Every structure is written in C-alpha cells, then in structure tokens.
Amino acid sequence: MNNCDGSVVIPGAGYFDLVPSTGDAPYRIFLSVPAESPPAQGWPLLVLTDGNATFPFAVSSLVTQAPYPNATNVGWGVVAAIGYPTDEAYDGMRRSWDLVPPPGRAYPPYNEGGPEIRTGGADKLLHFIEADLLPEIARRAPVDAGRRALFGHSFGGLFTLFALFERPDLFRNWIAASPSISWEDSQLLEREARRTHGSGGFVHLSAGEYEGDELAPFQYHNEDAAERLENNKLERTVDLAREMAERLDGTPDGLRARFELLPGETHMSVLAAVVNRAVSIAFAIRD
C-alpha cells in the first residue's frame, strides 16, 4: 500500500476459515452481520459463491441500501460468501472442482507443468454448505431458515441451479447469473428433467446483453473477437437461461422464475449488477 494512512475496513465484516467435516481443504468464509437487533425470526441470509470476488460487492450494496428501506425495499441481513484462502479474486483450480456438477472431467493445466484441472465436485460443496456452513453461520448469528438465498455467477450460476435441482428446500431464493448451462454437454439439463421437487421458491436467472449474438463494441477491437463471438454462440448463455426460466416458472411445486437481461454488460462486467440484484432479492422487505 503506497501513500495511504491506513487500510479500509468494512464495519461488521470479517472472515474465518472453515474446514469441511469431510477433512477437505478449508474454505475462507466472508461474513457480514448487521449491528442492529435481529428480527424475532432471525436475519435473512444471502450465501454467495466465489466469495473473494462477490463479498465486497454484496456488502457495499447492502450497507448503502438497507439504511433507506423506503427508497430501496432492502432491509438488513447476513451476508456469507464462500471463498478461498487467497488474496486473488478467484481460485480457478478450486472453483472449477467445487462449482461444476459430477461426473466432471479433466482439463489441461492453466500453466505448463502445472496440475490438471478437474471438475465435478459440486455435490461435495453442496454437502459442505448443508452440513457445515449453514450450522456454523447459525451459531454465529440468528438466521431465518425460511429466508435463505443462494447466489452464483458463471460456474457459480451452474452450481446454484444444480443445488436447486438437488436440494430445492435448502434455500428459498436462487439467483443464477450467467449460468454455464451448456458446460460439459449441457448435463445440467438432464438433472433438471429429473429434479427433486420442493415446496416452491423463487429463481432469478440473468445474463449480460453481450453474452449472446453480439459482443460489446470494445470487444470487436480485440484480437480474440471472432473466437469470443463463436464461443458465445456455442454456449448460448442468454438463450439457455431464458428458456430455463420459462420452464421453471409456475411448475406444479409452486416454483416461480424470471429471466433478466442486463443491458450493456459482458460476462465479466455483469458481476456487480447481478450481485446487487441478489441483495435486492435476498433482503427484500416486500415481494
């Protein structure tokens, strides 16, 4: 840090490392608990994946909106983000394993001579959330089990939908941003077809405007423009998310779903906007 008098600290926010009961590698859990007195039934809870990247957005969104509920419809709540013991925004290797559903595959290393990348551990992360994380959060702060929300972006969006199909009553609100539905031959669609039905809930799917058939204007000047556009067309992020929302909305188990296209956003730039949307859903005072 250069030419500064101190570090920036977000009041009420911190982190702790939590080792899964299975003995696997620890997760870094970023946690924000309101200073206010909790409601009688406990605080609503928002859990986010890719916590190193998403937690700062979520807390900033909450603390700037919750003090003004009449203008924002956002109240106070607990934010818990699942991250990794690193100072980087993402741990590419671990998130590939954690967020992609089984059976998974092996991919070449990120760097020559490095370890291969493996996917397929989403069931283990889901078990960690249910068996270890949620009880630990409840031990640290009073939480309303009927107002839990899960957010994920990209692979995290894929994980959020996987969790919905496997444990539909674990959360009440599910926010899947730019979900990688087509990943590994769109196997998620098979899980959707045989999904476990729950007792309702709300699913918000979204994507950036420039994740479809058009790139952002600046991207056309990049060397990888043609390849990126072709990948967009193959991945069909916008179309697959919209189509899934249409299928899930109004199912017999009472699930509600909607799709939102975020204007002017790419796959990466959309993150701030969709985390803000997750906050507005998880901590809404009125539906």
Put the structure in a nutshell.
It is built from ten helices and ten strands. With 287 residues, the protein is α/β, with parallel strands linked by helices. An eight-stranded mixed beta sheet has the order 1-2-4-3-7-8-9-10, sandwiched between helices.
Protein architecture, described:
The protein has 287 residues and is α/β, with parallel strands linked by helices. Helix content is 36%, strand content 21%. The strands form 2 sheets. An 8-stranded mixed sheet has the order 1-2-4-3-7-8-9-10, with helices on both faces. Strands 5-6 form a two-stranded antiparallel sheet. Helix 1 packs across helix 10 and helix 3 (92-99) packs parallel to helix 5. The protein is globular. The mean pLDDT is 96.
Question: Could you outline the blueprint of secondary structure elements for this entry?
Answer:
Elements: E1 13-18, E2 27-32, E3 43-48, H1 51-65, H2 69-72, E4 78-83, H3 92-99, E5 106-107, E6 117-118, H4 122-140, E7 143-153, H5 155-166, E8 173-177, H6 183-186, H7 188-193, E9 201-208, H8 225-235, H9 237-248, E10 255-262, H10 271-282
Parallel strand pairs: 3-4, 3-7, 7-8, 8-9, 9-10
Antiparallel strand pairs: 1-2, 2-4, 5-6
Helix pairs in contact: 1-10, 3-5
Structural class: alpha/beta
**What do we call the CATH homologous superfamily?**
Alpha/Beta hydrolase fold, catalytic domain
**Strand ordering within the main sheet:** 1-2-4-3-7-8-9-10
Helix content bin: 25-40%
Shape: globular
